[in-house]
Design goal:
Layout: H1 3-21, E1 28-33, H2 48-54, E2 62-64, E3 70-72, E4 86-90, E5 96-103, H3 118-129, H4 138-143, E6 144-149, E7 154-159, H5 177-180, H6 187-193, H7 195-198, E8 210-216, E9 220-225, E10 238-243, H8 247-256, E11 261-262, H9 270-280, E12 284-299, H10 309-317, H11 321-329, H12 358-367, E13 371-372, E14 378-379, E15 387-393, H13 397-411, E16 416-422, H14 424-432, E17 440-446, H15 454-457, H16 480-489, H17 495-512, E18 515-528, E19 531-532, E20 551-552
Parallel strand pairs: 1-10, 1-11, 15-16, 15-17
Antiparallel strand pairs: 2-3, 4-5, 5-7, 6-7, 8-9, 9-10, 12-17, 12-18, 13-14, 19-20
Length: 554
Amino acid sequence: MTKSRIIGLLAVLVIMVSFTERPFAKDTLIIGISQFPRNFNPNIESMLAKSYVLAMTRRPLTVYDANWKLQCLLCVDLPDLATDTAKRETTADGKPGIAVTYTLRSDAKWGDGTPITTRDVVFTWELGRNRNSGFGNLELFERITSIDVHDDKKFTLHVNKYTCEYAAMGGLNLLPAHIETPHAADPKTYRVKSAYETATTNPGLWYGPYKITEVATGSHIVLERNPTWWGKVPAFKRIVIKAIENTAALTASLLSGDIDYIAGELGLTVDQALAFEKRHGETFTFQYKSGLIYEHIDLNLDNPILADIRVRRALLHAIDRAAISQQLFQGRQPVAHSQTNPLDTVYDPSGVQYAYDPARAHKLLTEAGWTTVGKGLRRNTKGDSLQFDLMTTAGNKSRELIQQVLQSQWREVGVDIRLRNEPARVFFGDTVSYRKFPHMAMYAWISAPRGVPRTTLHSTQIPAKDNGWSGQNYPGFTNAAMDKVLDEVEVVCAPKPNKALWHDLQRIYAEELPVLPLYFRANPFIMPKWLKGVTPTGHQFTSALWVEHWRAAP
C-alpha cells in the first residue's frame, strides 16, 4: 500500500471516529403530557401534571428511587437511629415520638443564588401548620411539633409520632422564605397571592436542574437550565412541556414531530400505546412500567344512597373488571381488589375480592329497597330513580371508554349513569379537591412503596372549609376501625405485627368499599430512539426527578 493511500485511509478513519464520538446535536426536548397543572405551588393541591413539572425544577428532601429505596436529594444523609441522627423521645402527652436531624446540602441554592437554609425550613413549617394556608398535607406539618435550628443547614424535626418510615420526609416541600414571606402575611389569601401563582417565572422559586421561564396557561411550559443548580449539568438546554389533553392528539403530535416524547407518567393509556406500537413499533422505543398506580372511582359518601354498603357492593359486583383488563389492556393492567398493589411487599393475596356477579348485584339492590320498574331501571318507594353522575378527566379516551362500559354494565342491573367530564385542571383543582362531585369521580392515586394511605382514608383527612380543604379523603370516609389501623400501622414496626395490620387495612377497605377499585395501571413510555437515560420508577416520585441524566444520543 502506498504512503498516500495509507494517509488517505487514516484520514477516513479519523473522520469516522470523530463522527461516532460527536454528541447528538439536540439542545431542546419537547415533551407531551395529557394535563396542564392547575397551579405551581408544591404544597397546595395534588395533581400529577404539577408534580411532573416540579420534579425538574425542585428537589424533595427525600425520595424513593427507581429501585424503591429511600434516598436523600436535598439532604446529605438520611436520619438513622444507629448514628443518633434519629432519636426516640416522649411527646408532651406521654406518647412515643422521634427527633430526626437533617443537614441540607451545602451547595443548595435557589435559582436567584440565595442559599437554601433552615430559614426556609422553618418558614415552610410555620405556614403549613396554619389551617388557613390551604396546604394539602396539613397532617404532616401538624405532626412536626417543633424544629431545632442548629445552623443555616442543620435542623432537627420533633415529630409527635414514631413511625416505621421516620426518615422519609418527601412531603416537606420547601418554600423560599425570602420571596414568600410577604405573600404569606395573611394565610387566608396565600393560595392566590403566592409568587408561584403571581410570578411563576421568578428564578428564586426554583432549585432543580431547570427553572420555569415561560408559562402559557393550558398550552405549554418552558424550562431552561438553572445556572445555580449544584448537580450534573443537564444535557438539554431547554425543555418544553406541551399539554395536549386529548390523548388521541398526543400520538398525532408525536408522529408529526411537534413533540419528541410522550411522558410515561402522564401520556397515553396502555390500550392506546399497544395500538400505537403495532403501527409504529420500529420508530420508537416502548417500555411498559407497572407500578403503584391505582385507578378507582371515589364515591361521595355524603350521598345517602351511596352511604348504603349494599349499594356500593352491588355496584362493584356488576362490573366485569377482568374482562376490562383483558379486552382493553391485554391483561397488562390487573384487577384491583383494594388500594394496595400486589407489587408492594405489604399486599395480602388472601384478601376480600368481589367477583363479577350480576345476580348478586340484583339481589343487593333489591334488599336496599331499589326495585325494577319500566325499562329495567330501579326506583325506591319514594319514586326516586337509582341514578348517578360519573365524572372523570375530559379527553382521556381510555377513561371515557371505560365510562361507557360501566354505564352499560350498570344499566344491566337497573342503575342509570350520566357521564359528566371536565378538563383535568378543573376536575382535580376544583371538583375533586373541594368534594364537589355529587356521586362518582374516576381517577388514579399514585403512591410510594409501603405508603400508608392516611391522607386518603383517615377520618381527620376529609377536606372541609374549617381545615382549609386540606386532606385527600374525598369520599368522606369515616370508619373507627380504619382510623385505628391507620394510626397503628405507622408505628408498629416489627415485621409480623406490621404485616398483620396491613392485612387488616386491606380487609376493612374491601369490606367497606369507600371507593370502587378498578385496576392497577401500567405506564407506557414512548420515546424516540435517540432519547436515553429515562428510568421509570413505578411510584409517585417520577422519572423527571432524575432529568439531569437524560440525554440525546444517536
